Amino acid sequence: MLIWLNPSRSFIRLDEHREHSPADPEVSYDIQQLEEVFIDSTTDLPLAPFTVPFHHTLTRNQSLTVILHWLETGEKHQSFRWS
What we know:
- By secondary structure, the protein is of the alpha+beta class.
- Helix content is 17%, strand content 34%.
- It has one helix at residues 60-73; strands at residues 2-5, 10-15, 19-20, 22-23, 35-40, 48-53, 81-82.
- 16% of the residues are buried.
């Protein structure tokens, strides 16, 4: 599980046979939405910003819910949309 945080949102990638990412069920796709910027510090390369569409992110509290559920059960939390 990889977790990226910025000041207001988070992006989680669960690597289980393929990449899965939970999304906030309260946020719908909107072409006008700005993307969230995160910094990838998981490599030895210089820190590189990357963007994620807002509707693919979670609040920090939602991230905690997803992470704790995964660690306790080994399953994806059903309250979230998963890609």
